Amino acid sequence: MTITATRTELDKHRELNTDHAAVKSVKARIAEAGVEYLYYQIVTLTGRVVGKVVPARHLMRNVENGIQAHPGVVADLQADSSGALVGGSPERGECVVLPDLDSFGVLPWDHRTGFFFCRMYEPDHAPDGAGGRPVPVDVRGNLHRTHAGFTERTGLVMRSGCEPEVSWRMPGLSTEHRPGTPHSMYHIGQMEQLRPVYQRVMEYGRALGLDMVESNCEDPGQLELNWAYDLAERTADRLILHRQICRQVAREMGATASFMPKPEDDKLGNGCHHNVSFWRGEHNVLADPDNPDLHLTETGKHALGGILTHAAAFTAVMAPTVNSYKRYCHTGQFAPLEINWGMDNKTCAVRLPASGRLEVKSPDSLVNPYLSHAVLLAAAEDGLTQGIDPGPPRRAGTEPLPGPFGSLPLTLKEALDLFAGDRAVTRGLGPEMADMFLRLKTLEWERFCGAVTDWERMMYDGDGC
């Protein structure tokens, strides 16, 4: 009897990486650019980019065998109060990190260096039959699997575009706004002060495949530089690249690029609105091509209903830091609070700015795009499956009264409690990643609660108390 071994997901990825045409294309691009070093990159739960650098001459070895990494890096090697690693014991074996060849790029600021985004797998020798399986806490791999499952069950794919806002500080740049004077939103004079920044960020973005489109300045020192929408996985990769670009430009210019969601009390927050649409082939199911008015199809309403239903619970993912909730607390600054929707209404949590796309406004500038897109897929699928009604849109000029979907949480702790109790949202991440996310972010909240801040010193220390 002949026993045929089952092909694992690791085997399938290796087969893709040894495809002759794909390898030939990457080798040609490496040779053309003069690349000598390659970053093999993975993304952590908090959106940090980690990995290893390898001389490019070892390409084929790494294409087939990957690199090795401990899964604890996904949780930033953070330890809890007992000293235990959130990402697993040091005795746990390392993972195989395999590059996706179609993610290859060359750093536009140093053509000797290229990179791949990677996915993580258990090694062939892993115990208990786990050999070759995807590592469940790999955020990038999870989004690929979640999107594929969504498409298999619904026949739809999600396309998205992000609106990342970044606060810049640099010599000679005025970021002050005097009350009563004209605001700097869309002000070309403010854009001119930031011209060296936006030109270089756009230049590097174009070189890395970001189709840069309309961009603007919304607050003194704040830039929102946008690129064209695409499949959710590609948009997530590009948002990570955009942050890497901004940090590099900051280094080159002696500037600081802050992704802090609420960097100053009196300034607008840094959001990262997600514009999503759902497609069957080349047809956008959110829009009826025969209806010229601003509208949302029944299918679109059900997807929206799911997003609104789970918006409070997935806020922990969309606003993943202690600082994130200060952006919601400052009302009147375009950040949402009530969970509602409206037709081109900037006060709403979800806005329909044009027929065919939904703008989800809760994500901020430190969002992990692989997690945010995964939970949006899970929420939308629940709405499609259950036929959830989002209710009528909020009319302009009316008070945003509390509705059936409630309000967004106002602290990270409240958001984490809601996240833990929502099966649809946690299903988007899978049980192991949802558990690790909860542990990591609960640890962040506990450390914050134990920290003494400048605000406390101002309020309670000295003669003023």
Q: Structural class, from secondary structure content? A: alpha+beta
What is the strand content? 15-25%
Average of per-residue pLDDT values: 93
Q: Give the beta-strand count.
A: 16
The CATH homologous superfamily name of the largest domain equals: Glutamine synthetase/guanido kinase, catalytic domain
* CATH class identity of the largest domain: Alpha Beta
Kindly give the count of domains: 2
CATH arch. level architecture of the largest domain: 2-Layer Sandwich
Family: Belongs to the glutamine synthetase family.
Keywords: Ligase
InterPro entries: Gln_synt_N_sf, Gln_synth/guanido_kin_cat_dom, Gln_synth_cat_dom
Domain GS catalytic: 139-465
Task: Tell me what the structure shows.
The chain has helices spanning 9-17, 20-33, 59-65, 139-154, 188-193, 195-207, 232-253, 298-309, 311-318, 324-329, 369-386, 412-420, 423-429, 431-449, 454-460; strands at residues 37-43, 49-55, 67-69, 95-99, 105-106, 113-121, 157-169, 216-219, 222-224, 230-231, 256-258, 272-280, 283-284, 341-343, 350-354, 357-360. The strands form 2 sheets. Strands 7, 8, 9, 10, 11, 12, 13, 14, 15 and 16 form a 10-stranded mixed sheet that branches. Strands 1, 2, 3, 4, 5 and 6 form a 6-stranded mixed sheet that branches. The mean pLDDT is 93. The protein starts with 8 loop residues before the first helix and ends in a 5-residue tail after the last helix. It folds into 2 domains: 10-135, Glutamine synthetase, N-terminal domain (Ubiquitin-like (UB roll), Roll); 145-449, 2-Layer Sandwich (Creatine Kinase, Chain A, domain 2). With 465 residues, it is an alpha+beta fold. One of its GO terms (molecular function) is glutamine synthetase activity.
